[in-house]
Amino acid sequence: MTSPKALAILTLLPSQRRDRIVDFLRRHGAVTLQQLAQAMDASVSTLRRDLDALEADGVLDRTHGGALLRQQHYSTFEPDPVAAAELSPREKRAIGYAAAAELEPGQSVIFDSGTTVMEAARAVLERRIPLVAVTNDLAIAQLLGSSPQIRVHVLGGMLRAGSNTLMGDEVVSGARHIRADVLLMGAHAVTDGMLSETEPEVAAVKRALMQAAHSKRLLVDSSKFRPRAFMGICALAEFDAVITDTGLPTVEAEALAKAGLKLTQVSVA
After folding, report:
1. How far is CA 254 from the centre of its chain?
2. Which residue numbers delimit the HTH deoR-type domain (predicted)?
């Protein structure tokens, strides 16, 4: 049975539906067809035609399986945390569960800031295992701190405007004194074997966290394999494992295997 939301969208004129797509892109910067289909409850074929029309009008640029808003400087565009959490929620949840399942009681774990790593933190709580946690994300710190079995260390620094992320020299300096067992990290974009972020301060923190852990695990949904953002972080080959979803293009999966990385692809029901 077609949902009321889908019926409402189907009754929109094409121009009205495309206005909604443009509004969605203005909030997120870049999206895949699957993300749009989930958010708008519309068919992929309909949305593909809409994106083609918007590209012809000069509104956006098509990518493999999605689109970038042309008016935005994509490489420096960062969606707000609420908007970011709306993208691929089922994939992020499944990736978080897979990451949490691989942690062992008593380990020291760095939780990078971000919506996918937040899902891993939620899954850790459900497992009820003792951990020593380190994070530069205030929301993740508060969540993990609700468990009496988890000792939480917060890397202090400057709060990034409009987010829960702490960054700056204090975070980088604090990370230099840490030798954790595991790092769970997210990224804005993965492109041609490189990770990148939109701001130099965020990239600097991630580079410092990479040096602070023995096992480095990247948590990214398949939509993050997209055009490069402004600041490079590191080569993908520096990680020990990548946890993503089954939407990952075959060419990307083959590249990860060639780099010798442990690849886990979770399916979404």
Report:
1. 21
2. 14-69
